[in-house]
Design goal:
By secondary structure, this protein is an alpha/beta fold. The chain folds into 2 domains: 151 residues, Cobalamin-binding domain (Rossmann fold, 3-Layer(aba) Sandwich), CATH 3.40.50.280; 243 residues, TIM Barrel (Alpha-Beta Barrel), CATH 3.20.20.70. It has 21 helices and 16 strands. The strands form 3 sheets. A 7-stranded mixed beta sheet has the order 2-1-3-4-5-6-7, with helices on both faces. The protein is globular and about 70 Å long. It binds cobalamin (B12).
Length: 494
């Protein structure tokens, strides 16, 4: 009988909004067959620690793999792994994903995580599992971080593997794949996929840089079609969210994927860069539209060309291109979703005010533009001028997992109130007040529960404020948004 490997996706969404645990599906794909991957999803079960302990006892599993992003997911990862370690100290706990890839030493010195795999996980995880089960030296497991004789050791990263060389994800190993079909603006059975890994750029605020070091590994259009057909034909998806860091890096690839998606008759959403998309031909835009592309998420980041430079946004990024793409997409009929990072050092207040002003211009051009407003939140990044500036102003990352689990660092991870020493309360307040007014004046198209009447009420109530640029104390709007439970796409997805 093949040995069992337990895989845990800690809770990161409200019940009913769970997405396929893509990170764990990816690492399960390379062990499936020789080992039996068993998934436990904290978004689906109420007491994951109990489930893990029961399953470990029932199957004799000796390893638990955990995928961890910063934020609430990290909280549950810590809680559950601590409980599991207390009951089953012999169960080897391996963490991978965004948080451990950035803070591996904090994880392996916590007493609850035995190993961390940094970056792309498939090859390294397979090697670790074989080493644990069949013997061998930990020194030969690439991308591994662990503690040996009281000191933290780390091995060189595994070479990146092209995605077409990896097995398809074993959806059938999930307890019930249909649990991962959601309802949204896109459709009634929305599922997700990731058609590429990484990003060739090195923006100073971005967590992806450390994971792949400016590489982008795309699946071929054929493979994307194969996966989309599995989701549609086998699991009944009527829409797909493509969560890649950048789906649109190659125009010919995006155009071919669009052509291949046409017969599937689905809606879809993906992420891309403004400078890349602004060079796409009209012909390609028409293909995207025809294939069901409803909305594209883009990092517009700032209303200042200077700040874009400071962010090392790279390519041909500029505020003019942001305005251009807003105009272009209005004509094509695909909704742009722009995220902005406000409150950047060295002068967070001036930075926030400038970008707020710019957002008004964007909305004048295309009122449908969806907005996601983040506050600058440092990530470990070897070459980041922004991080250096933040550190000079007193910023430092937590040194222990328990500190990361504190309320203060939870809000940091959500990038809404990062509590950074240089960010004065007035900046955060300014951004949040503006957000309440602009979201009331232009209610999101993605909230299917908002009736026409509700939209009119929000717009009427906020009209004077928006026109006069009077954002302070929008208590009446905040109260109304609370009553109607206005959805914020940046924390809830759509
Ligand atoms: C899907 C997703 C989500 C989903 C969660 C899906 C789930 N797990 O159930 C949702 C929408 C809920 C979500 C929420 C958040 N997310 Co999120 N999310 C992503 C996204 C788009 C894709 C992740 C993914 O599945 N990738 C596909 C897989 C195949 O790649 P991967 O995860 O990197 O996994 C590989 C390796 O990392 C490694 N690996 C991963 N896990 C494991 C585990 C083991 C044991 C091993 C060995 C290896 C391993 O191997 C895998 C295969 O190579 C990423 C951005 C991105 N495109 O990567 C952001 C991202 C991870 N999220 C991020 C953040 C910050 C959040 C939030 C905390 C905050 C926010 N405001 O967005 C919220 C949390 C909300 C909450 N309540 O907890 C950031 C993390 C930033 C950072 N500093 O590290 C990212 C990078 C987005 C970004 N560009 O900033 N997210």
């Amino acid at each position: 009988m093949a040995p069992t490997i337990l895989l845990f996706n800690p809770k990161c969404v409200t019940r009913g909004k769970q997405r396929l645990p893509m990170s764990l599906l990816a690492i399960a794909s390379v062990i499936d067959g020789d080992y039996i991957p068993v998934f436990i999803d904290g978004n689906v079960v109420d007491n994951p620690a109990e489930h893990i302990i029961e399953k470990a006892k029932a199957t004799g599993a000796i390893m638990l793999g955990v995928s961890t992003m910063p934020g609430p997911q990290l909280m549950q990862a810590i809680e559950v792994c601590r409980q599991v370690k207390t009951v089953l100290p012999g169960l080897i706990i391996v963490w991978g994903g965004y948080f451990p890839s950035h803070h591996g030493d904090v994880c392996v010195t916590s007493g609850i995580v035995d190993y961390v795999i940094e970056g792309q996980g498939e090859v390294a995880f397979r090697r670790l599992v074989d080493t644990i089960h069949q013997g061998g030296s930990l020194r030969d497991v690439p991308s591994l971080i662990w503690v040996d004789d009281g000191t933290v050791k780390s091995n060189l990263r595994a070479p990146l593997v092209p995605l077409d060389n990896l097995p398809l994800w074993p959806y059938e190993r999930l307890d019930n794949v249909l649990t991962y079909r959601g309802k949204s603006y896109l459709g009634n059975a929305v599922m997700s996929h990731h058609t590429s890994f990484g990003c060739p750029f090195a923006c100073n605020f971005c967590a992806v840089v450390r994971i792949v070091n400016q590489r982008w590994l795309p699946e071929s259009p054929e493979r994307v079609e194969t996966v989309a057909r599995i989701l549609v034909d086998k699991y009944g998806a009527d829409a797909i969210e493509f969560h890649d860091m950048d789906f649109f890096i190659q125009e010919d690839r995006a155009a071919e994927i669009a052509e291949r998606l046409v017969p599937l008759n689905i809606n879809w959403w993906a992420l891309g860069r403004i400078d890349k998309l602004s060079t796409y031909s009209d012909h390609t835009w028409q293909k995207l539209k025809k294939s069901g592309c409803k909305m594209i998420f883009m990092g517009a980041e700032s209303g200042s060309d200077e700040t874009l430079k400071l962010m090392n946004k790279g390519g041909k990024s500029s505020t003019n291109r942001t305005l251009e793409i807003a105009r272009k997409m209005k004509a094509v009929g695909i909704v742009p979703e722009f995220s902005f990072v406000l409150g950047n050092p060295p002068d967070p207040l001036a930075d926030a005010e400038n970008t707020i002003h710019f957002i008004r211009k964007v909305k004048d051009i295309n009122p449908q533009v969806e907005l996601i407003l983040y506050i600058y939140t440092p990530v470990p990044h070897d070459r980041s001028e922004l991080l250096k500036a933040a550190q000079e102003l007193g910023f430092r990352f937590p040194q222990t997992l328990d500190e990361w689990a504190s309320d203060e660092w939870q809000t940091f991870a959500l990038r809404r109130d990062p509590n950074t020493p240089f960010l004065k309360d007035n900046v955060r307040q300014k951004v949040r007040n503006f957000e309440s007014v602009v979201n009331a004046y232009y209610p999101t198209v993605t909230d299917m529960r908002l009736s026409g009447k509700m939209r009119t009420l929000l717009r009427t109530l906020s009209g004077v404020r928006y026109k006069l640029e009077w954002y302070d104390w929008p208590l009446e709007l905040k109260a109304l948004q609370r009553v109607i439970r206005y959805r914020r796409p940046e924390t809830m997805g759509f």
